[in-house]
Amino acid sequence: MFSTSSKSAYWEGFLASLPFLLVVAPFGGVFGVVGTEAGLNLAEVMGFSILVIAGAAQFTALQLMTENAPTLVILASALAVNLRMAMYSASLVPHLNAAPLWQRALVSYLVFDQNYALSVQEYETRPERPTAVKIAFFFGTATAVAPVWILSTYLGAVIGALIPPAFALDFAVPIAFLALIGPALRTIAHVAAALSSVALSIAFAPVPYNLGLILAAAIAMMIGAEIERRMEARS
Amino acid sequence: MTMASWHIWLIIITLGVGTFLIRFSFLGLLGNRALPPWVLRHLRYTAVAVLPAIATPLVLWPAATEGQTDPARLGAAVLALVVGYVLKNAIWAIAAGMGALYLVLYLGG
Fold first, then answer.
1. In angstroms, what separates the C-alpha of B108 from chain A's closest C-alpha?
2. What is the ipTM of this complex?
3. In Å, what is the CA distance from A195 to each residue of A101, A180, B84?
4. What is the mean pLDDT of the segment spanning A97-106?
5. Same domain, yes or no: B11 and B53
6. Together in a domain, A144 and A204
7. Are B52 and B100 found together in one domain?
8. Cβ contact B25–A89 (<8 Å)
9. Which of residues 86-115 of A touch B (CB under 8 A)?
10. Contact A224, B38 (CB under 8 A)
11. What is the pTM of this model?
């Protein structure tokens, strides 16, 4: 796996991932800050970024923990946010299936939105490349992104304790969610799912144990999928 | 947060294992088995279905104003969403949202 072409693919991936550090570092920093503000200690904040290593799910869990939601609702919501990664996993199979199990396991741990998108783009441009080269490219894209996520969380957690309340950091959490939603609204079906989610979360706000969230999300997801189905049937 | 330390770690570890299994699902466990199209179709909408349902109450009824709807925060939220949608960029969305909020809070005293 350390052939010349693997090595150059590794560095190609590494270089291609560098612009994404501008996204990953601030998000990790914000998670460190709001995690500390919410009352997690340093080990717990780091536990999230090292073991879960998935931004949107971490923010989801953290928010519901501060609302004292039931544990099952916290777990279901955060894992639902991550379900898109099952789709990522499925789309990597044709390219990486021949790699040893330990490499596929390590790839799985390191799947982020950004380096996944880079890698799939590369694999579809050059599908003829051997598996070892494709694996090297993926590890290249993850080499900077994953440590920067963890390190920026640490810096956020340490610095967060020093930031005065005048900075309205309470609102960094909803802003972080909205910043993830905006770019994800790629089609009418995505917009419809998101708008339904907003309306239903207001309608179901009085439902106890944060179950309104689960209901709203489940119905909104079905609305998105149904609109996509109808649009495809029409075209 | 009023959670006990063991409870927090239970959540972190369960989420860690669950998230890994989701990422490992096809690469490690299910291989080349194709998902039925209707499942894939639903998976595409999980993030845009869950995230707004979490964000909406936070925007409409912020804890910092004791649940009273705050025009400054509402405006900042709408701006962050619009900037993220138009530029397809999360960082500009955060910068616009927090920047607008700081500006209004500063001007409003």
1. 13
2. 0.87
3. 41, 15, 15
4. 95
5. no
6. no
7. yes
8. yes
9. 86-90, 92-94, 96-97, 101, 104-105, 107-109, 111
10. no
11. 0.82
